[in-house]
Write a structure and sequence with these properties.
By secondary structure, the protein is an alpha+beta fold. It contains nine helices and four strands; from the N terminus they run E-H-E-H-E-E-H-H-H-H-H-H-H. 33% of the residues are buried.
Amino acid sequence: MQNLTLYTSPQSRGTYVRWMLEECQAPYRAVAQPVAALQTAEYRAINPLGKVPALKVGDQAGEVVLTETLGIITWLAEQFPEKNLIPPAHSVARGEYYRWMCFALHLEYACVDKKRGIENSSEQRTFIGYGSFDEALQLFKTHLQGRAYIVGDGFTALDLYYSGFLAWMIHAAQVLPADPVFIDYMNRHLARPAFVKTRELDAADAASFAA
């Protein structure tokens, strides 16, 4: 496995990637920074958008920087097939994985629009990917009912992403309702040892910034 360097900030999307790295038991180096540091020229040379996460892969002879949380955790799942964090390649379950991976982005933007007070007209719903907030949310809730996992019968990178997403949208952004379907699903996966360790690492980074 090539060298992995994670650029992150406590309680950010970088937490998802750190959690994934812990699930994979991958050797990696974490470079945690306060949010203000992400706007420096030094960091923007790594990710011009000034966002985390960013995952540097390789060494000085050749490095590639990966960004976008869902892309990174899916790639990591593929690099560690023995961890079974993504359905087998070429399977229908992998197709389902891709479906719900793409839907996650639609649901996120539906929630962000809701937070911003944006309501789409009937005409706008025809060309906006998620259609309406209520329909997207109901689709997701219906899919989760009676399920422990987004796809298949085991934990995948998608469950990691959606658990973190729900925690943020329910508790921090306060856009989604604390529906038992969401809470039960989310709490089941947030109790995983890899996430508990990730939360401790995030807390230690935050404390070091405050010192």
